[in-house]
Every structure is written in structure tokens, then in C-alpha cells.
Design a protein that fits this description.
279 residues; alpha/beta; Spore Coat Polysaccharide Biosynthesis Protein SpsA, Chain A; eleven-stranded mixed β-sheet; two-stranded antiparallel ribbon; 13 strands; globular
Length: 279
């Protein structure tokens, strides 16, 4: 029987949050958001977890996981900052996946550690894993109106689809619900429909995506090795792979309401959301 993994990206700096938001206590027993995603994955039979972290928080992350899930949790750690030229800022989400490559040999779900996607979203991703091959992946999309923050504007990957196949993802900044017009606007005043599909970095991949991303990373780092800010981002790399390799991404809509942490003032609303979502 083919096994699968949950890969969580937890190496971000949390500069706007002002601390290690990946370990911010959300649940009644000290759970962080990633713990709920792990439990959701375990509920559908995925018991191997890969956590992508910075070396400076690896020990704290390991202690936290053992405290919440017990010493027998099947987890591997990938240190993103040790797998590329040294700098303070991580090298982006595509590089994060590559930094975990030695722990990925089976189909996997990829998710952000500081987002919570809801049980059915993880179920959608898990159900699609057996259908993947070297030429296809899947993206779980969310309705834009269900991913907005109560504490300010957000950046979202606006998806264009055709027959449930991904065509484009455009990173769009300044998205906010405007109380005067009762519309969702971006930073330039463009209006978006509430049901517009967006990417929240919840993907399902065949392990062969690693080789395809490696080619993208080699091109990127050849041009940006001296940069302190450039990032090798997963949506951009997937777009190039789609164009160059004929790679297809099936888009699976989720009806869940996203919750996540960007700013310190998000904490209380996220705690309330998790209480409502999980009972």
C-alpha cells in the first residue's frame, strides 16, 4: 500500500507577527494551528509528517510536537536555512519543498503551518493523492470571501480555472472587504466576486514534483544567489512547469472558511474560529 505524507512549511520569520507564529497557542491544550492540520491528516490515514523549519526554532518545534502528539509521532524535520546560501530571509516556498526532498518519496499534501484549512479540505487533498502522477498535481481552492482577515488587508493568489484545471495564479495585494461599498477590493480598487477561487498553498503532489522544482530552483539561484530578498515561490514555479512540461493542476474547491495568523491581533479571532470549527 502506498503511503503518503503531510509536509508543513513552518520556516517563515513571522515579521509582522513579531514572534514564532507557527507555535502560537490556539487550542485549549496549547495546540498551534499546525497541530490541528496534523490531526486532520491523521484522521484520513496520513501519519508521516515533514516539518520545514529554520534551525533556530527546530528544537522548540520538536518539543512542542512531542508535547501535543506524544513521543511516537512519525515526524521528520527539514532545515530550510541550511540548504541554500545563508541569509536571514528564507528562500521561498518552492525552495522550502526542495529542502525537504530527502524526506519525500511518496505522494504528499503540502500546507502552510500558520493556516488552518478545515477537515474537508484535507480530505479533498488526501482523496486526490492516489490519482496523481508525474504530469499532474492538485490545488485546493477557497472562496475569496472566506479567506479575508478581520484585522487588515491580505495578499491572495487569485486563480483562473478552466474545466477545473488551473490556468493562472496571480498574487494580488491589498484585498479587503470595504464596508462602504460592501465589496471586496484590492489595493488598486479592483472589485472581486466573493466566490473568486484563491490559493492558500494547500496542494497535493506526486513525489516527482521534486525533480521539476529542482530545475526551477537552479535557474532561480543562478540569477539571485546574492539577493537578500528574492524568493523562489511555488506558484511561479508551478506556472513555469505547466508552460514548459504540460503539467496539469486540478483545482478542487473547498467550502471551508480559512483561518490563519498574520498579525498579533489575529490571535483571539483565530482562537474563536478554531473553537467554532472544531467544536
Amino acid at each position: 500500500m502506498t503511503t503518503s505524507s503531510l509536509v508543513l512549511m513552518a520556516a517563515g520569520l513571522g515579521s509582522r507577527f513579531g514572534g514564532v507564529k507557527q507555535l502560537a497557542e490556539i487550542g485549549p491544550n496549547g495546540e498551534s494551528l499546525l497541530d490541528f492540520t496534523i490531526k486532520d491528516a491523521q484522521s484520513v490515514g496520513i501519519d508521516h509528517v515533514v516539518i520545514i523549519v529554520r534551525s533556530e526554532i527546530a528544537d522548540d518545534m520538536e518539543s512542542h510536537l512531542k508535547q501535543i502528539h506524544g513521543a511516537n509521532i512519525n515526524v521528520d524535520f527539514a532545515l530550510q536555512d541550511l540548504s541554500a546560501p545563508q541569509r536571514r530571509k528564507p528562500w521561498g516556498t518552492a525552495h522550502a519543498v526542495l529542502s525537504a526532498s530527502k524526506h519525500i518519496s511518496n505522494p504528499f499534501i503540502l500546507a502552510n503551518a500558520d493556516d488552518y484549512y478545515g477537515v474537508s479540505s484535507i480530505v479533498h487533498a488526501a482523496n486526490h493523492l492516489p490519482l496523481l502522477d508525474e504530469s499532474s498535481g492538485a490545488l485546493i481552492s477557497f472562496e475569496l470571501s472566506k479567506t479575508l482577515s478581520e484585522t487588515g488587508s491580505v495578499t491572495r493568489g487569485i486563480c483562473t480555472t478552466e474545466n477545473n484545471q488551473l490556468q493562472h495564479v496571480i498574487e494580488t495585494e491589498g484585498l479587503i472587504f470595504d464596508n462602504l461599498s460592501n465589496e471586496i477590493l484590492d489595493g488598486e480598487g479592483n472589485v472581486f466576486a466573493p466566490a473568486t477561487p484563491v490559493s492558500m498553498n494547500l496542494w497535493a503532489f506526486h513525489s516527482s514534483i521534486i525533480d521539476l522544482l529542482e530545475s526551477q530552483w537552479e535557474e532561480f539561484i543562478a540569477e539571485n544567489s546574492g539577493s537578500e530578498t528574492a524568493e523562489c515561490l511555488l506558484p511561479s514555479c508551478i506556472a513555469e512547469i505547466m508552460k514548459e512540461e504540460g503539467y496539469q493542476v486540478h483545482v478542487i474547491p473547498s467550502s471551508e472558511t480559512w483561518t490563519g495568523i498574520t498579525n498579533p491581533e489575529d490571535l483571539e479571532s483565530v482562537r474563536e474560529n478554531i473553537k467554532a470549527f472544531r467544536g
